[in-house]
Automatic annotation (TrEMBL):
<feature type="domain" description="Fumarylacetoacetase-like C-terminal">
    <location>
        <begin position="97"/>
        <end position="245"/>
    </location>
</feature>
<protein>
    <submittedName>
        <fullName>2-oxo-3-hexenedioate decarboxylase</fullName>
    </submittedName>
</protein>
<keyword id="KW-0456">Lyase</keyword>
<dbReference type="Pfam" id="PF01557">
    <property type="entry name" value="FAA_hydrolase"/>
</dbReference>
<dbReference type="InterPro" id="IPR011234">
    <property type="entry name" value="Fumarylacetoacetase-like_C"/>
</dbReference>
<dbReference type="GO" id="GO:0008684">
    <property type="term" value="F:2-oxopent-4-enoate hydratase activity"/>
</dbReference>
<dbReference type="InterPro" id="IPR036663">
    <property type="entry name" value="Fumarylacetoacetase_C_sf"/>
</dbReference>
<dbReference type="GO" id="GO:0005737">
    <property type="term" value="C:cytoplasm"/>
</dbReference>
<dbReference type="InterPro" id="IPR050772">
    <property type="entry name" value="Hydratase-Decarb/MhpD_sf"/>
</dbReference>
Amino acid sequence: MVDVQALARILDDAARDVRAVPKLTGTAPLDVPAAYAVQRAGMELRRRRGERAAGVKMGFTSRAKMVQMGVDDVIWGLLTDRMLAGPTVDVSRLIHPRVEPEIAYLIGREVRSPAEAESAVAGVAVGFEILDSRYRDFEFTLPDVIADNASAALYGYGTWHAPRDLSNAGLLLEIDGRPAQAGSSAAILGDPARSLRAAARLALGAGIALEPGWIVLAGAATAAVPLPKDAHVRVTGAGLGSVEVTT
Ligand code: OOG
């Protein structure tokens, strides 16, 4: 038996104390369904502190990320209002942050089936995600990272644009003006729209409908890079402009 509440608290404390913990599967027989239960319980702790769900993030939707992290299945997690990064991020509140370029979707109306996902999109933008695994050395198995809300920490996005074909948009991540990662949105399941539909399907499977105003992050197109202190990060998407953040 897995003590879902206790495991959720371990990860929640780790994030709040800015202290990495060993992976849960080292001591608990955590499978994927139990891991999502831990993720939900962690969200409930945040909700009780006044955080509100603000969207869904997809993970391991690209080969580059699967290879980087050594896992091979798509996962999802929830974003909250408090995870939205301001223009400046205090990295001392994070354990070992990494940043990756993203495609962001703005949901315009409730999505009641995966088939409705694309037509419900009100805008698209270039975005970024700041990951911060609560596990020591970013080392985890699939259930571990699911329990840890897919390493979600902070996110941001640029100006919203009218929905468009994003099956092959160039993405560039620069740190202090130097290219750190470059890729194409095609790396995201062949087309980030596929990831959007998967987000709707997975969330609906858990009884959660994508809501108006929610954000869906389709998953990184490249590997993630360490986010240092005193850094200036810019992510640019072809035809989508840029989004910047300073640490
Ligand atoms: C897990 C999160 C992966 C992505 O875009 O693939 C992810 C991790 O790498 O720590 O968000």
